[in-house]
## 1
Amino acid sequence: GAVVSQHPSRVICKSGTSVKIECRSLDFQATTMFWYRQFPKQSLMLMATSNEGSKATYEQGVEKDKFLINHASLTLSTLTVTSAHPEDSSFYICSALDRSTGELFFGEGSRLTVL
Amino acid sequence: AQSVTQPDIHITVSEGASLELRCNYSYGATPYLFWYVQSPGQGLQLLLKYFSGDTLVQGIKGFEAEFKRSQSSFNLRKPSVHWSDAAEYFCAVGAPNTDKLIFGTGTRLQVFP
């Protein structure tokens, strides 16, 4: 079946540095991908909708300059956490929409720890 | 605005017992409804979904869910739980004219032998 892969699965960085997380659709082309953030023992909060070839659409309260999203190809979207701080530590999950089936597939998630 | 409520934060059952996880939604029309399962440190796996038609939906791993419009509910059920079912379960709602999903807060299922 269709697979969505995220990399890295875990990343630890120092405060003030930037971290890039990749989300790839392996078996299908995804013009639309979504980025979620999940705090411990809480639900997934949609951060932004990533659209191939155009700017991402951010949810209310999500800082665009803090969380840069690039969807440069039909199989890859990247989330860059800029100038990361400890409060950015979280589990980030992406999903990709397979329009041929209408199904949404989720990546394995990336755990970011900012020291 | 759309919203999803999962009233039970944590449920514990014995292996072999039946299971029902509750989900209530708020939406002006008939939404698309989903149940996902998340194992620790993992992404989400789709168990089943409801778009239209038969209100009793069969999913993977022996799960089923029933859409009840009168109760705005989409409860997940399994007749006999296995130890491997221990995980976090999320109900989600999506509007037919958008690809976005709104997730409930999740229910953590613990299974005792």
## 2
Amino acid sequence: DGGITQSPKYLFRKEGQNVTLSCEQNLNHDAMYWYRQDPGQGLRLIYYSQIVNDFQKGDIAEGYSVSREKKESFPLTVTSAQKNPTAFYLCASSIRQGPYNEQFFGPGTRLTVL
Amino acid sequence: AQKITQTQPGMFVQEKEAVTLDCTYDTSDPSYGLFWYKQPSSGEMIFLIYQGSYDQQNATEGRYSLNFQKARKSANLVISASQLGDSAMYFCAMARGGSYIPTFGRGTSLIVHP
């Protein structure tokens, strides 16, 4: 079955540590996205990528970094520079960027800073 | 800047009744797409329905329909014959010309009572 996988489902981090969230898709989609969701809030865009080896900052990129070395993979690193990283992180993909292409989402990773 | 507004933080509906979830948007672009997603307690975002700005007819997908009123900039989701499994958060999103990255509203929590 095609889809998006995110791992781990739950992640605990000590302050000052970098952590990497995994996102893999086998849908052969060109575009991939990372969103952050806080309680009672909508999704806010962190980074997105339209093609391999290219990515752009979203609305809240500070304290995060990404890479897109393979079409199917788009890992997100939450660095120690992110002051309030506790949140629910969702990865998504779409065939391409455009008004007619819905996004497919992974199950999410819940990050908690201890 | 584009903006999505969902004014109903929470809605209650009796099983088998219809319910309307409100969404208004603000954009000056002539080309844009409107989406509705469902987020159950598990966290994964599930695509429900899409409406393009140039579409003449309201979109329908099974029990879901989108009441698109372009002049009023509203894109309300109508769920007919509510089921207990419809209890979830519902998010409205808009992707406009340019990057076509969806912007999400804050969501509406729907609870279906037996």
